[in-house]
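Per reviewer request, we include the raw input and output of the structure prediction for the construct analysed in the revised manuscript.
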Amino acid sequence: MKDLNPKSSEDSYNHLKGEKSPYLIQHSKNPVDWYPWTEEAFIKAKKEDKPIFLSIGYSTCHWCHVMAHESFEDTEVAELLNKFFVSIKVDREERPDIDGIYMTACQIMTGTGGWPLTIIMTPDKKPFFAGTYFPKESGFGNIGLKDLILNVQDIWNDNRKDAINSGDQIFRALSEMSYTAKGTGFDESIMEKTYDQLSKIFDTENGGFGDFQKFPTPHNLIFLLRYWNRTGNKHPLEMVTKTLDSMASGGIYDHLGFGFHRYTVDKYWLVPHFEKMLYDQALITILYTEAFQITGKSEYKRIALEVYKYVLRDMVDNEGGFYSAEDADSEGVEGKFYYWTYEQINEILDKESADIFTEVFNIKKDGNFNDGYSRQSNQNILHKTKDLNELSEKLKLDPAVLSKKIDEIRLKLYNAREKRVHPHKDDKILTDWNGLMIASLSQGGQVFKDHEYIEAAKKAVDFVFSNLYSKGRLMHRYRDGESSVEGNLDDYSFMIWGLLELYSATFDTRYLDRAIELNNTLINHFWDEKDGGFFFTADDGEKVLLREKKTYDSAIPSGNSIELLNLKKIAMLTEDIELESLIKKLESAFSEIVKRSPTSHTQFISSVDFIIGPSYNVLIVGEKNSESTNKMLDYAVKKFQPNKVVIFKDVNNPDVANKIAKSIEHKNSLDGNATAYVCAAGSCKLPTTDPDEMLKLLEK
């Protein structure tokens, strides 16, 4: 395959020259006369009476690369596009507001979606045709891009009224989808319904959900942990552990360099789509960390720590911001960086090590997978099918000795793999995904007692507020010294979540103050005063086509789902009654949508679980860094209890905590020992200086 950016002369650039998005840069030398999403492109379309050809993707998207190589680098296709359309290229990660609207339009029109997203629309931004990947030529009953262009041109010339009417109908449908009919609140039955539906689609043999492709979808599993915590039912926990064990053993996990790939194309977690996304690393580590808290299983701790190692080694800017993703492709081949042949392994390792490794990771001379694509038959994807004890018995090695040998071999092969051509890294820094990573590192730092993670979270916060924050408002994207694109709901809600978790990890009220400040901005500029809920874009932001309100928890949770939890936590921390009123309105705004499709809103329902309670406000009063204080704080995070907030009051500097809420001022330590005040549902238990008693109070 050709390089993503074939060398050419200076004058071969299109209108994407000078853009910061790695995805747009990849297309800046295409013969297609691409424009970025700017008013200039729409003015040109109106002036020349042409429809818009909108192509949306992202830099680490495999099928985006395929379509680029087949069509957008092809002069024949480019001539047709340049003649009949004004072509616009959008990075979905840079402009999720644009992507969200037109992806919804595609799903309305076709019943499906994905990237690359192909939209044809009028110059006033109304879509009348949608699809995803198109090959250059028609064949096998599918239309190719060349024929599609000519067909649309005929429609535009001869049946334009139909195209415009179609665009108007889609616009009305999009507008109706952003309307939320107010409903009643929630009770525990919504959790029972969600659990029942997830149980029906659970793959009991392989873990995960469904019987085709497998996505981690961490918020589904995070909900199940909360349902287990609420009910004591063992089955939801078994669903989670089965899935986590399968993921940790499967090809979806990078067993040498660590980190999770985006999904697998099979139900066995074996053959991944090899890109690695920052948001997956953040959410999956939260999941493994919580599972470790519940089960104490060392394997879950190992996986979480390895993923953190990958992120802090490969995905962080020198100033502390986290990069977005790594590509699936290298040297024009998906997965090439990660494949191994039997011969390669035996060339690098001595015979004993090679024999151990081939046994542990199922290496075969003729390859160990078949995904239906035309790949070399002798390639292997590292995965495990036996646990350590089974392998120890088969290899006649002590489990501890075998574990050490595996780590040594993995390191040797990792170092050899580092010499290969690496996949492309998308080094743009997104506020929302950084918020997720800050939340994850803050939680991991507390549970695993690793200050490095908390320091990384603090450094990322500093990066965001130094580079992606101006005049009281967040920006969405930073790259190459430039911040751009106004912050959206996810930017605010995910950063608020990260800041709240960092406050819990440090008890530095600067982070809580920042969270409250962002929360106020979010309410002032994103809240729907008429129907409730938060719009995805601000009231004073760029008008794209319409302002969407998103509830669906897809690859990442929706901003409304996370903000529901943020509001409850801030209300509990600060005793803000007005926020409690807003919470009820937010629940009411989306209750009918959530009740119709609970498994599409598992993060929202996890937030509902927190609100229904019992949820606890824990105030620990003591001398900072004293033995009794440290023990009490350790116990506060020792046990899995997701429905709580914790505040620390230093007896030597009480005013800092007293400013958080009025009631804190009157609570002091008993007999000079760290003292815990546990409150729930408007009433407080008797204070205790016994950490074990505090844990018992969190169970009542």
